[in-house]
Specification:
Blueprint (H helix, E strand, L loop, with lengths): L7 E5 L4 H12 L3 E6 L2 H11 L3 E5 L5 H14 L6 E4 L14 H29 L2 E5 L12 H21 L5 E7 L5 H7 L3 H9 L13 H13 L7 E4 L11
Parallel strand pairs: 1-2, 1-4, 2-3, 4-5, 5-6, 6-7
Helix pairs in contact: 1-2, 1-8, 3-4, 4-5, 6-7
Bound molecules: NADP nicotinamide-adenine-dinucleotide phosphate.
Length: 254
């Protein structure tokens, strides 16, 4: 069923992982998708695999001109409109407080908090015309106090808070703002977390099934399905939707 027929959707960080999986899912359900990121080769591969419904634009979300280029490209590819902005691009940093490098902390906050906020600001005029919506990506790190990823956890706490404030601010413009919180999904960002090579990291992540009461880690399609719901849920705004197989429950056996 084409539940996203003719929706114009911009996904930042769409050249890999969850963003790439969502691009394929949205295109298969009728959307015209534009993906962005810094690595042209990754974007090109994903777009070629999806076909003409997917367009790509190289850009860095921390750069104002790049953000405008992403929006312009998405509006053009989407037939002169933008229905949905998915603020998916993010980076992580492997450190707790002891030894935390200030420049790395600022980089994570700029990349994960300031950049999507400013992209959302730039997208408001287009989203107001379509009564569109914005989706942010939070993290299970805000549900579980896991040590060693301090900057990342702080950035995702900010993302979740600001998505609710933006829902309140943009509601009168008929723009909805929601946030999904994925559990573990085997992607590149996790290779950065574990410090392993991507193949080892992927195998490691599949071993994390026991942390999820549902008994498995997530697939990108699990996250895409939740976003599909939020895109169509016309009376849902300010929602923080856990899509994590129950990982955030932190359930333990005493
Ligand atoms: N995988 C998980 O277990 C998990 C769990 C909870 C939340 N998340 C969240 O899910 C989202 C997607 O992550 P993922 O797991 O799919 O990891 P990923 O494969 O590393 O995806 C991150 C994407 O963001 C892009 N990106 C990073 N910085 C950028 C910048 N400055 N400008 C433009 N693009 C940038 C990267 O592309 P370039 O490097 O080419 O720019 C990459 O495509 C993130 O928000 C992440 O925090 C993931």
């Amino acid at each position: 069923m084409n539940t996203l027929q003719d929706k114009s959707i911009l996904i930042t960080g769409g050249g890999t992982g969850i963003g790439a999986g969502c691009a394929a899912y949205f295109a298969a359900h009728g959307a015209r998708v534009t993906i962005s990121g810094r690595r042209e080769n990754r974007l090109r591969e994903v777009a070629e695999a999806i076909g003409p419904a997917c367009h790509w634009v190289v850009g860095d979300v921390t750069v104002a001109q790049s953000r405008q280029d992403m929006l312009d490209a998405a509006i053009q590819h989407g037939g002169g409109k933008l229905d949905v902005l998915v603020n998916n691009a993010a980076i992580t940093h492997h450190s707790g407080l002891i030894g935390l490098d200030e420049a790395a902390l600022v980089q994570v906050l700029q990349n994960n908090v300031a950049a999507p906020l400013m992209l959302t600001q730039a997208a408001v005029p287009a989203l107001e015309k379509t009564h569109g919506s914005v989706i942010f990506i939070g993290s299970v790190h805000t549900r579980l106090a896991l040590s060693g990823r301090l900057a990342y956890a702080a950035s995702k706490g900010a993302v979740q808070t600001m998505s609710r404030v933006l829902a309140s601010e943009l509601g009168p413009k008929k723009i909805r703002v929601n946030c999904v919180i994925p559990g573990a999904v085997a992607t590149e960002i996790n290779a950065a977390v574990t410090g392993q090579d991507p193949k080892e990291a992927k195998a490691f992540f599949y071993k994390l099934a026991h942390l999820h009461p549902i008994g498995r880690i997530g697939e990108t399609e699990d996250i895409a399905q939740a976003m599909e719901y939020l895109i169509n849920a016309s009376w849902t705004t300010g929602a923080i939707l856990d899509v994590d197989g129950g990982m955030g429950l932190g359930s333990t056996k005493l």
